Amino acid sequence: MANSADQTPQGLDRILTLELVRVTERAAVAAARLRGRGDEKAADQVAVDAMRKELNRLPISGTVVIGEGERDEAPMLYIGEEVGTRNGPEVDIALDPLEGTTICAKNLPNSLAVVAIAEKGNLLYAPDVYMQKIAVGPGYPRGVVDIDASATENLNALAKAKGVKVNEITACIMDRPRHARLIEEVRATGAAIRLIGDGDVAGVMHTTNPDETGIDIYLGIGGAPEGVLAAAALRCIGGQMQGRLQFNSDDQIARALKMGVTDPNKVYLMEEMAKGDVLFAATGVTDGNMLSGVKFARDYIQTHTIVMRAQSQTVREIKARHQDLSKFS
Length: 329
Fold this sequence. Notes:
Helices cover 30% and strands 26% of the residues. By secondary structure, it is of the alpha+beta class. It has two domains: 15-123 and 278-328, Fructose-1,6-Bisphosphatase, Chain A, domain 1, CATH 3.30.540.10; 130-273, D-Maltodextrin-Binding Protein, domain 2 (3-Layer(aba) Sandwich).
């Protein structure tokens, strides 16, 4: 991973970048203790508890804008919850203490603990609905893909920009019945597909390093909160992403209007979902393409985290060996 030094004091304090690592590390370790146990709710709850505890130690005045749900649905880390010591900068927080709960419960690849922080007002206040998404990694001309174009058109355009045949392109798509036609169309082009059962934040992130992950483009419909988290990651790593909220009822549209969504058909660019200076951290819970999962040894715990900052385009990988096991008790 490339590194660069922070050049200016503006934006979020760079010290928070490393402080954020502790937040995802604690959540990942808590969830990892329940890997493969088949209990999604229990794994998610311990991750939530651990993440909340660490967030409240940060020197911030934070508000959760993407969380575990609305206040009446989530007792902790609900949308609107205030976290931090209240003695620092005002920030918005998007989080998923356990991205891929089913993945963790089954001990399958690419489950993560994820947090993004931005200055107040700079993260899309997305309702808990679906979002149509398309994303590619860095190095392509602006607008190389378009959410309003067909999958065939986008795959051909991406292959041309990459200088390869379309059968050398791999698309990541969530394995859901709603994607049956999309999958059929992609396969008809000759492109390959990597189907994932869950974890579309990781799926989008994988487009940033296709040589390592084998994924060139992310297509399909997933959660809107995960879309904001994915956009925050791409803002730091580089890439392009577009998203459109998907509403299934007038009630959903009305709730979104109260959250500031005035145009239900608007296409959101990456820069609109995560603006300004953004910090992003993700720690592996289970082994994956980009991050190793938590490893438990007799006298230490090992974690693998990626932490990034949009302003400086700094990307750090941190493999940590924790010998003070009391911190995770």
